[in-house]
Amino acid sequence: MPAPAPRIPSTAGEGPMSNAIFQLARAHRARAAAMLGEMDLHPGQELLLMQLLDRDGQTQSELLESVGLDHFTVSKSLRRMQDAGLLVREPAAHDRRVMVVHLTDKGRAVREPITAMWRALEETSARNLSAQQAEPFVRTAYAIADAINSRALPQEESE
Q1: Mean pLDDT of the chain
Q2: Is the confidence at residue 50, as pLDDT, over 70?
Q3: Are 37 and 57 in contact (CB under 8 A)?
Q4: Pick from 120, 151, 150, 137: which is nearest to 21 by CA?
């Protein structure tokens, strides 16, 4: 039996798509957080690990750019992950101010658990969708993200 439709606040009536995106993002993040918690990871750490699993030895700046998170969040996540023994940060040979991030054996060992978690999250997310619905949804979601990301913030527009 499908879940009842959420009550949409009247002020959100002018943005039903935005409200749906918010509800989707919140539900997805909550499910992912629960799954990551079982692996002793915090949300967002899996994104950093996936980037490092694809290319170990990135600088903090490269990781920041690849995951699209702010400097504080990435720095805090990397510190927690270093404390957990998943990675090490070392000054770069060419510039001691630049930190290079390397996975430890423990960090490399999370490849399969993260892959399995991501697969399970995908299956849960698409449970009520056919392949004919899922494929256009992915394209639409990326189109929406591109539209949002290409638009300057109101503060930037006035400058």
Answers
A1: 90
A2: yes
A3: no
A4: 137
Please give the backbone phi and psi of residue 88, each rounded to the nearest 5 degrees, phi first: -130, 150
Handedness of CA 90, 96, 99, 102 (dihedral sign): negative
> What confidence score (pLDDT) does residue 10 get?
81
pLDDT at 1 over 80: no
Q: How far apart are the first and last CA of the chain?
A: 51
55, 126 Cβ separation under 8 angstroms: no
For the chain, give the secondary structure using H, E and C: CCCCCCCCCHHHCCCHHHHHHHHHHHHHHHHHHHHHHCCCCCCCHHHHHHHHHHCCCEEHHHHHHHHCCCHHHHHHHHHHHHHCCCEEEEECCCCCCCEEEEECHHHHCCHHHHHHHHHHHHHHHCCCCCHHHHHHHHHHHHHHHHHHHHCCCHHHHCC
Distance of CA 1 to the CA centre of its chain: 30
pLDDT higher than threshold 70 for residue 128: yes
Rg (CA), the chain: 19
Strand partners, 103: 87
Distance CA 47, CA 41 (A): 11
Local confidence band at 158 (pLDDT 50, 70, 90 cut-offs): low
